Every structure is written in structure tokens, then in C-alpha cells.
Amino acid sequence: MNRWGLERILTVDTVGSLTQGEITPTASESAVLVLIGMHRSGTSLTASLLQDIGVDLGDRLVGEDVGNEKGHFEDLDFVEFHKNVLRSQSLDIDGLTLADDIPVLDRYRETAQALIEKNLKHRLWGWKDPRTTLFLEFWHSLLPQANFILVYRSPWEVVDSLYRRGSDELIEAYPERAVEFWMHYNRKMLEFYAKSPERCLLINLSHIVRDPSGLIAAVNQKFQLQLPPPSPDIIDLSLLSDRISASHRPVLIEKYYPEALELYRELEAKATPFNGEAEFPWMRLTANYSPKEWGFLDWLDTGNLYREQRQQRQTLKRQFSHQLQRKDVKIQQTQAELQQTQAKLQETDAQMHQIHDEAQKVIQDLVNTIAQLQETQAEVERLNGELQQVRSQLYQTQGDLASTQSQLQSQLEQTQQAQAIIAAMQTSKFWQMRSSWFRLKKLVGLPLDETVE
After folding, report:
1. Which tens digits make up the pLDDT trace of 313-352?
2. Rounded to 5 degrees, what are φ and ψ at 156?
3. In 10 A of CB 101, how many CB atoms?
């Protein structure tokens, strides 16, 4: 079993993979790796290695920026914490300060404790922020089980990188401060290393670049972990520049900041057990250059830089001319296409006018048809009214006919009754006498008046 009890709960078979069924870790079970170093010392590169093998560096990381094309790998929560503490003491929030023992107010101490508790859910976690170097004792008091990876880089490489980045106003105003900041940060690391060597791994960036797997092996050995090797292509050497090491400019640091070289020697000596034999390449440089020589070399470099800039301007001018020619051709093509488009547009416009006229005609025909339909509908309604009247009259006529038929039937019955009476009367003796009387009157010539008075 390893020092933090990881062997029974942690199995790293892929980047950051864990076995299932694990329990919630406690502060004593959670392994913490804190990555520190002076700005531009390669801490971002080292952090990318740790993330690649499964170390949780946070959910919200600082994105890419000038000088860090692949990102900073810095947890925004820790970055904002350090900035707030520095701001509370009226110090540069990027940590470019020479202040010692920066106090942390109680409210920020509570914030830091909350950050720790938030991350204790991870078996293997940590963070990277160069500003942490200014607060090593503070974090060690809150996280006594944490392990620290201290990355350093030669002062001339750090200064050159800061100058080339060109985003630090303080260094732009006082360029010599770059060396002083380098010494301050690396002294803080050595002081902490002297107090807690068992918790620290001190390593030169150049060795990490040459052998990334060697760094992980050293971490495993020092802190009794079982981390897998990093991906073979994790480091992009094109993003690192060490040309300054082969120039005469390190002589400036030897001339004006000899204590920086002594500090670098001490760093190399302390880190020797993990890096192999210490190397002091500037000793060969100081033997080859005198102050007069590096002064004229700088003058020569300035001339070479002017020549390179002039060549670059000429190259850019030619490239711009070629691009301009291509743009002109493209513009001509675009103009021709525009003319074709305009012709098509005009043709389309004429078609649209024709369609519009036809549509107007169709609309007018439709309006006329609707008017005719309305007239027809009115006529139909009128005829329906007349039909209703005819139907009403028909119903009335049918009623009158039925009444007439009833009266006719009654009169017919009365006639039949009268005929029956007459027939009965004709057969009676009275009628026969009456008839004989009328015949007699006729014979004697008397009037045949049948009126009965």
C-alpha cells in the first residue's frame, strides 16, 4: 500500500480512470499535487503532463493567451483567490512583487478552506498558479498532506520569455525587475524546500522537456504514487525557445546580478538527485565574452534585427502585392459575376412585372366573378322568395279547391236528393192530376202559367 492508501482504491489504467465502487475520499486519502514556479518557467507545460496522466486540475481553467497557445492549465478559482489576496494588500495581482510574508485575511482563509473541501472529492487533484509561490506556508498549513512540484528555469530564459511576451506593464517600465522577480520567486521555493524537503520535488524545466517520463517517475518515487507515463507527443517543442542560452546575453546577468547565478547554482545543486549531474553552461559563456564584446554583439544584433525587419517588410510587401493582385482578379471576377447577377435580376424583375400584371388581371377577373356570383346569389334569393310566395298561393289554392270540392259534393248530394223528391212527386196522384190539368188548359187554350200564388 502506498503512502496515501491509493493502492486499495485507485487503479490508473487510462488517463484519469478510476475503479468503480470507490468511497468518498477524506483529506488523508486525497493525494494533492501543487505545481509552482516563477512565471515563464514552464509550469504550464508541466501542468499539461499532469493533466494528461489523470491529475484533476480543476473544472474551469484559464484559456489560451499570449505565450500560452495551449492554455495555462490554471484553475480560475485558485487564480482569483490569489488575485484577491494580492489586491487586498495593494500588490500587483499578477504576483510581480518582491513582498515577503503576504498576510491572508480571515475571509480569504475561509475561501481557501472551501476550495480545498470542494476538491477533496477527487482521489488525485491539484492546481497550478505561479502566484502560489508567494503563499507556500499558507497553503502548507491548510494542506499538510499536499506535495509540491517546484519547477525552475534559468534566469536568462525566464527574462527572455517575459520580454518576448511583452504583456507585463511593470516589466515594460522596469525591465531589470524581471531578474529581481526571478530571484524572489526562486528564493521562496528554496526556503520552502529547506523546511519541507520530503514534500517537495525540485526539478529543472530542461530535464522535463528532455524526459517527460522521467518527471513522472520522479514524482512516483518521491511521493509514493503510481502514475502512468505521459503521452509520448504531449510536449510541443516548437512552443519553447532556448536560443537565448546560446547567446551572449546571460553575461549581462553575471555582470549585474551575480547573485542570480549563485541562486541558480543552488537550485541545480538541490535538484541534482533527480536531474543527474548539475550543469552550468553559462560558465563557458562568461569565458568567451567580455563586457566590450557583448556590447558590440548587442549592437550587431540590433543591426541584424533591423536587417531582418527590413527583409520581413519587403517580404510582407511582396506578399501583400501578390495578395492585392489576387484580390484584384477576385474583384474583377466578382464584378463580372455581379453584372451577370444584375442581368439575371433585371430579367427576373421583368418576369416579376409580367407575373404581377397577370396576377392583377386574375384578381380583377376574380373580383368580377365574385360580383357576378353575388348578383346570381341575389337573384336566387329573389326567386326563392317568389317560390315561397307561389308555394304559399298553391297551398291556399289547394285549400280553396278542397273547400270547393266539399261544397260541390254537398250541392251534388242536395241535387240528388231533389231529383229523388221530384221523381217521387211525379209518381204521385197529385202530380198526375197536375199534369192532366196542364194538358187540359193547353187544349182549351188557357195560359200555362205554373206560378203558384
Report:
1. 788 888 878 888 888 888 889 888 989 988 998 988 889 8
2. -70, -35
3. 8
Q: Is the pLDDT of residue 212 over 50?
A: yes
For the record, the C-alpha cell of 244 comes out as 537565448
- For 249, the grid coordinates are 546575453
Residue 55, C-alpha cell as written in the block: 491529475
Domain boundaries, the chain: 31-289
Cα 362–367–368 angle (5° rounding)?
A: 100
Note the pLDDT of residue 35.
97
Rounded CA-CA distance 6/224 in Å is 9
Look at residues 172, 142, 122, 171 and name the one whose alpha carbon lies nearest to residue 18: 122
Q: Is the pLDDT of residue 21 over 60?
A: no
pLDDT at 223 over 60: yes
* 148, containing H or E segment: strand 147-152
Instruction: Quote the cell numbers at residue 314.
Output: 519587403
Q: Which three cell numbers stand for residue 294?
A: 557583448
Q: Is 167 helix (H, G, I), strand (E, B) or coil?
A: coil
Q: Could you tell me if residue 445 is left (phi over 0), alpha (psi between -120 and 50 degrees) or otherwise beta?
A: left
Q: Which of 218, 187, 177, 4 is nearest to 92 (CA)?
A: 177
Residue with cell 529581481: 180
Three cell numbers, residue 72: 495555462
Report the distance separating Cα 207 and Cα 185, nearest Å. Answer: 20
Chain segment 80-105, per-residue pLDDT in tens? 999 999 999 999 999 999 999 999 99
* Cα–Cα distance, 108 to 139 (Å, whole number): 12
Confidence of residue 293 (pLDDT cuts 50, 70, 90): low
Query: In terms of residues, how long is the chain?
Result: 453
- The three grid cell numbers given for residue 298, joined into one nine-digit string: 548587442
Q: Are 284 and 248 in contact (CB under 8 A)?
A: no
36: which strand partners? 150
304 to 291, 309, 365: CA distances (angstroms): 20, 8, 86
Rounded to 5°, angle at Cα 207 from 204 and 209: 110
Tens of pLDDT along 115-135? 999 999 999 999 999 999 999
CATH code at 31-289:
3.40.50.300
Angle 61-67-69 (CA atoms, 0-180°, nearest 5)? 55
Q: Output phi, psi for 324, to 5 deg.
A: -65, -40
pLDDT one-digit tens code per residue, 347-392: 888 898 899 888 899 899 889 989 998 998 988 899 888 889 888 8
Positive or negative, the CA dihedral 293, 298, 299, 300 is positive
User: Is 123 within 8 Å of 10 (Cβ atoms)?
Assistant: yes
What's the mean pLDDT in 198-216?
93
